[in-house]
Amino acid sequence: MKKMGKVARLASLLVLTLLFGLFPIGSGNNLNKVQAVTPLNNPRTVADSSMNAKQKVTWDCVWFGAYPQSEVTSGDIYNKLKNATGWDENNDIVIDGNKYRRLKGEDAICATSDHSNHYNWREDYSTYHYFKYEPIKWRVLEVGNGRALLLADQVLDTQKYNKSFKIITWENSSIRSWLNGREAIVNQDGIDYTNINFINAAFNTEEQKSITTTKVINDNNRQYETDGGSYTLDKIFLLSESEAYSEKAEKYGFAKYSHTNDEARRTQCSTYAYAMGCFKSAVKNYTTNVRWWLRSLGTRCCAVEMLEYGDARNEGVSISSNDCGVRPALYLNLLSTNLYFYAGTICSDGTEGDNSGNSGENNQEDTNNGNNSGSNNNTGNNNSNNANNTGNNSNNTNNNKNNTTAYTKPSNKTTASKKPTKRALLPVEKMTGSLKSVKSPAKSTLAITWKKLRKVTGYQVQFCAKSNFKKGTIERKFKQKVTKTKVRPVKSKKKYYVRMRPYTKSGSKTYYGKWSKVKSVKIK
């Protein structure tokens, strides 16, 4: 029996060795650590009044695939990259067992040298910059039926929703073709993405086989009812409005309403995505947060985007906008793949837990030149006292036992949560907003005027076609000196309801006054 035990142990070690050998050089998964079985769980949500969304969410994460992310700016490897030949048509190359991509400003979607929100190309758009392929970290939004819905933890690239400005749908957009490597006939612009695309760059053949082809439903815009087009069959897709804000979205860990400044919807970007043109916020408390596309259409020739604050621009931004990030989503088959690895947890307050902090890569002399990716996932809410031990959440009612692998590490101590103490109300919390007028001075135009208040940061204004503000609410924020706004286009012949309230920012938190009385107007 003892001999058999030794044989079994040797066989187990041999299996692990073979598994490590499955990862090709270019995948970025140079795994060399002991692995342990870990179940993947659905998001865990707990009430938390300190958060803008009034909740704190924890997701399991996995490493799967690889994509250019951090920049290489010095060291021996930098010199090797500068002198290297043999770059392929994607501008990729493998050196010393690691894969890299080169990029110059001329090939970026948006390149500038004088804008604080963008990567600084230093007036040199013809010199190559170099980026290392690294494992992609994904948040697990849902687990069930042997598969997991994954959303990239950060923005990985920057692309236009559609190359040209024209009326399109998700089905015939260039971004869908680019994500999935589709032929020219699939998109309206007639661009062939079979060679240069996201899916082939991020995943090897075996990894692509483990991604489920999914029926993607393209609903009409929730506010403007813009036609979403036909359903599609995709391996890679972007989230929709209903997947980012709705009752359905709540199970993924997101706030129900689009106007909520939801920490769970905030994200940052890789340095590569930043160099490609991604807009990075410079606003205090939201520094380095970025905007990212949804697949849902907005108003004419626009697509919905998530803003750096965690709310949505329902009417959308131009489909040819060149600084909106790409945050891919996919369904991973958990039953037929051993190609993904457990990456710990991440919480909507920006803290990470139960994470080895290592994706299995060899350390290189890869340093950043100041164009930081901000990949530490700081969502702009510096709540350092995260007391949720997400790996042992007794309130989790849907723990699917789909096993993945993790790197072993010493257990981390958790800090016990302190009981919140009552605080005195701030002056703004005793104030009530006051609308002066709500009019429709012209066709499809809504004009709103409100009373100016002292000692506040600004005003939050909401308008909606429903008097209860529960669906399709659009929100705008204005500085303290601004007391009026015009909104267009809004639906003609439709009645709109408006309300506003003051707010004050203190540190990383926002405090609100009371809502004004609701006023309404029928749009011309």
Automatic annotation (TrEMBL):
Region annotation (Disordered) maps to 352-426
Residue ranges of domain Fibronectin type-III in the record: 427-524
State the protein's name: Fibronectin type-III domain-containing protein
Listed Polar residues bias regions: 406-418
Q: According to the UniProt entry, which residue ranges have a biased composition of type Low complexity?
A: 352-405
InterPro entries from the entry?
DUF6273, FN3_dom, FN3_sf, Ig-like_fold
Q: List the SUPFAM superfamilies hit by this protein, alphabetically.
A: Fibronectin type III
